[in-house]
Each structure stands twice: as structure tokens, then as C-alpha cells.
Amino acid sequence: MTTTTAEQIQKITNNQHQNPFEILGSHRLSDHNGKSSWVVRAYLPKADAAWVIRPEERDSYPMHSVHHPNFFECEIEAPELKNYQLKVKEGDRERVFYDPYAFRSPKLTDFDRYLFAEGNHHRIYEKLGAHPVTLNGIEGVYFAVWAPNARNVSIVGDFNEWDGRKDQMERTETGIWELFIPQLPSGTLYKYEIKNPQGHIYLKSDPYGFGQEVRPDTASKVVDLNQYQWQDESWIQQRRQRDPHDQPISVYELHAGSWLHTGAEHPPDSGEVVRVSEKPEGRFLTYRELADKLIPYVKDLGYTHIELLPVAEHPYDGSWGYQVAGYFAPTSRFGSPEDFMYFVDQCHANDIGVIVDWVPGHFPKDSHGLAYFDGTHLYEHDDPRKGEHKEWGTYVFNYSRNEVRNFLVSNALFWFDKYHIDGIRVDAVASMLYLDYNRKDGEWVPNRYGGHENLEAADFLRQLNYLIFGYYPGILSIAEESTAWPLVSRPTYLGGLGFNFKWNMGWMHDMLDYFSEDPIHRRYHHNHVTFSLMYAFSENFMLALSHDEVVHGKGSLWDRMPGDDWQKFANLRCLFSYMFTHPGKKTMFMGMEFGQHQEWNAWGDLQWDLLNQESHQKLKRFFKDINGIYRSQPALYTQDFSDEGFEWIDCNDADNSIVSFIRKDQYSDEFVVTVCNFTPVPHHDYWIGVPQAGFYEEIFNSDAECYGGSNMGNAGGKATVEWSNPKWSQALPLCLPPLSVMVFKHKPDA
Length: 750
Prior knowledge:
Helix content is 22%, strand content 26%. It is built from 16 helices and 39 strands.
């Protein structure tokens, strides 16, 4: 005699019941003469026989089939019935396990569900996803996934032979499905089998999964992120006390997959370097190997931060990480989550901050990912005019949906929380802010006011930045934004988007256009050098020469410099020196520091063999020194975002392609003078005005012999002479080397 109906059993066996706990597991039947009676039901596909085992007893209770050959039940007389086990015989194999449907303690509270539905659960990643927990004294893994439009959701993996009938999840009112599976260890591979109302099956990785298989495999992996013992408490505390705006920030941007492979020696300062082919046979370096090789290299060059192209899990190497499928999982290409924690920890131990490229603007259409997640357009818009970037072949997040915004905001917070990163560089912000971005007329939908601004995306970015600076003072939030959208790097309480830095794309384009000109023609393009100061303080700008400038047929920076090899090197030193003395923080892509000749190839390595040549070694030495000058002179970084920190001496000498200016320290009377000669013509007795009399020490000269220059200069500095100039009463009669930038520091007591 069965204790449930054939219809209910059929719903379970057909995987159509949204609350399998109503049928499966243990259920009290009745109390007679003070004795309790229970029924235990289990759906066990492939089972020939089954028993219930109570660990405190030696006896087992045989189960019998009802209405279906693999649906079993038995009655047990006992005062309590919990933590029982099932013994199952499948052919010649027997196994014993705890019944998942004996555990009903949800990790998600009603308040969790409320906050998530409202879009304000800032640490929802601690509840959704896969989490090792202990229930009723039994270790296992709690799973939860948001799939509100699914008919059914199951957890599948090696542990259940990828059979979606075995571990069916329970649906809650908010569309979150959950289940605890006992005795699953960390490292377990799993996916969600999701059925839409029509019964179509979607096999999905976990959107909140903390780990994933190495591509091309796509299963999620159970990971406990609380095992690593961090050693960077002092770094984090110091970061909280700092204002990045008045700090030196010099960022080394790199793609971890093509900086260096195994099979090549780490580039030394001198000596033989083993060349790796354009498609090396060696494997990627792991996060720990990168810590051993990359950190000393970057530290020696004097950079303050490392910026990694996206490290979140992505299926295709050729996307460079910009088509993210696993937003909460550092890519397994380079090792485990703990390995990445070690990398960040070691950066902090060496006084280097870590910035990660973060991609909230779009996601790929890969079948295992977020696309059409529960059989509907859940994370993306259903209208392709709003939900698709055709040029990129990707979907756009639906920023108007609370749960989607919650997913993205919590993801950004997650990287700061669990991986201790120091900043995010937000990719393709312009594509988020404009509904007509790369879309033709008729291919986009105006906002409610008839405009082309994506109001929901702007609100999302404000919420994001408000929260990350509230939780993590002192971090960086950098916008890659190429339009005139106002107040990108201004606080949200002023109506801004809340970033604290914005890439200066205008400066980058002007300077690369200018330096690609033959010096003889530069007098006609002088405004390219000076125009950036017309708007330099309208945003908190970061000057960036990034990976985007050395791909897609643009060639390397070396390629764009005119002249012979000597002039190419001199032009590069001029460009970089002007960058480091111009207002704004700095970002440069790997390989620029030694004059990479070839366009960046994401499948290969940098051209480390160039460091066998003295000229390239000298350029690398130049970078070490320009970083050192930058970090040692507060005038070059404490007032990057105020016109009080900058003053032109002369910006009008277009005929000679020479500019000179003053940079001023915010917290003292110190200042430095920079003079740039952008042609290969030297000048003797070239006078520039200065604000104070005294001796001006030449603290940097890009034309120094140790950098590969002609070694012209001013014998360590110049004393002022009186000058009857309308603006300047004192002047420096300088020797200006060809294609050079010089920096002078006032020494009033000298």
C-alpha cells in the first residue's frame, strides 16, 4: 500500500515536480499509542533494490516499488527519523549514501530572497552558487540557482552520472532553486540541468560558481574560498587610508596568457634570452609562476600596479578574456582560485596593487553560459534592439532587472572581498551608456524620454561605484569611456557616474597621431600636444597606452615612430616622458617598456629576444628611471586633477615643436619644470621663463647616453638669469637635445 498518489509519483519520475520534498524524503504518518510512524520515499533511477539504514541501528529496512519500478518507499516506526541513509543495489554494485531529501535547512533566508529580488543583496554570492556546509552534523554542498522561468532544475555531475532525475531541486517563491547534497567534497564538478516549460533541456554552468574546468570543458567546480590564509592585512589597512587621486599610479597592463610561456627564460637585464616562437609549444604560466616571474620584473621597473586583462573564466582564448562565461571564477587556465589569491597576496607583499579588467557590458552566447539561461532571456533583454551587440556577437545585460543588477554589483564586490584586488577597469562603458552604440537607425529603442542614453545602465554604474567605495575606500574604479558623457569620474552625490578615474582616449589619439608624423611636419600639428590641457581637469583622467593601441593591424608603437632606429627610440622616449610629466595617472601595455617591434600577438609571447640588444635594454632602463622620477616627485602626481597643479611656460612655439610647463606639488611649495623638444633639431641657449630665481637641477633627461640618447644636456642643471619678459622675471638658458624631454627641479638653496 502506497502513501502517495500515482500522479504525484509520476511528476517526480518525469522530473516535473517543483517541490520534490513534498514527496521524497521522510514524512511523519501518524502517532498510535504514543509511537510515531514514518514513511521514507526515494526515486532511484537504475536501482534494483533499496533499503533505509538508520546509522544508530544495525538493521536495515527494505523498500518496495510503488507505481514505478524505481520509486521506492518503506514505513518505519521510530520517534525521530533524520540523517538516515539509503543503500542502493544497481546490478552488481551497492552504495550507501545520505538522502538529500532528509535535509531541509535552507541557506537562503526570506530576507536574503527579499534583498535579491530588490537588487540589494551585496553578497548574494555567499548564498547562490555552491557552498560547502554542514547540516545536522553531515558535511556536503548546498546549491542554489536563480532560474524563475524554469519548469524544473536538477544538479548533475559525475557523482550522479549526469542524470537529471536524481538530484531534483526545490523552487522557492522568488524563482531560486536549492538543494543540499550530503558528502560531496570540494572539487566536485557539476552543472545545472534546466528544463523550460516545453521540456527543452539546457545544461548550464553555475553563474555564481567559484571555479570551472579548464576549457574546452565547461563544468563548474565546488570551491571553498575560505581556506587561503591571507598575509596582506597591513596593505589593506594602508589602502583604506589613502586617496588615490594624490598618489603616484603607474600601471603595467598585461595579458597573462601572452606575457610569457614556459620554455622561455624570464628576461634578465643582460645575457642570452631564449626566443619563443609566435605560437609557442610551452604552456601558460600559472598564477604562482607569474608571481615568481612577473612581480620582480614589474617591481624592478617601478610600476605601482599590475592590471590584468579579464581573468574571469572565458571559453575562448582569442577573446583575451572579454567574453566572460564565469563571472565569479578566476580562469582555470592559470591555476586554482587559491593560486590567484597567492598571486594577489604576493603583489601586495611587494607593494604592488592589482587591477582586474571587468566586463559588465556584454556576455557571450555560449550554450553553457548566461545566454537564454532558464529557457528565456533572463540575463539579457528579449528585444535584440536592446539586448544584442551584433558586431561583437554578444548579449547585453538587462540593467533594468533587479536580479541582474544584483548579479553584477555583487560580482564587482566579490573580487574585492574574496580576492583582495585593488581596482577594476570597467570595459566598454560607452557601449553601456548609449542605446544606439554601434547600431544603425531602426536598430535601437529610445529611452522613455526619447533619447539615446541608457538610463538603467547609468543608474547601475552609479550604484556600483557608490557601493564599492563605501565598502573598500582607497580602491580604483576606472572607466574605459570614450565619449563626452559628463561627470564620469565625479561622485554620485554630484550627479556623476562615481568612477574615480577615466581613461583619456582623446589624449591617446592626439599623441599617437602627432608622433606618427615626420618631425618636419609636427609644427602643423602642434595643437595635438597642447589641446589635452583644454579639458585635462574636466575629469580625473588616466593616460593610457593600452593593448587596444597595438592590435587589429595598428602595429606596435615602434612601428608608428618615424625615422631610423635612433629616431624611433628617441621618439618613444619623448612620448613616454611627456606622458609621465603630463597631468593624469598612467597605464601602459606590456612590451612597450622595451620597444616591442611586432604588433601584440595574443597567441604568442612578447619579443623577449630584443633584450639581447643594447638599445632595447637601454629603453627598459629608461622606463625604470622615468617611473622612479615620477614616484619621487610629488609635483608630478599630487595635483593631477586641478589647474592649480599645472602652468604653461610656453605652449606656442609651434615652429620649433617645443613646449615647456610647470607641475606643482599640492602639499608644499615644490615644483618641477618640464621642457619637451619634439624634433631632432638640438637648440643651444634656448631661454624659458621660470617663476623663481636659483639653481634648477636637471633631474631627468630622456636623451641621456644610458638610455641610448646623444647625451646632450645642461651639465647637471642651470642657474637663472634675469629676464625682461612680460610674464617671467627669471629665465633658464638651456641646451635642448634632439627629440628629448628634460625635467628640472628648483633648488633655492643651491
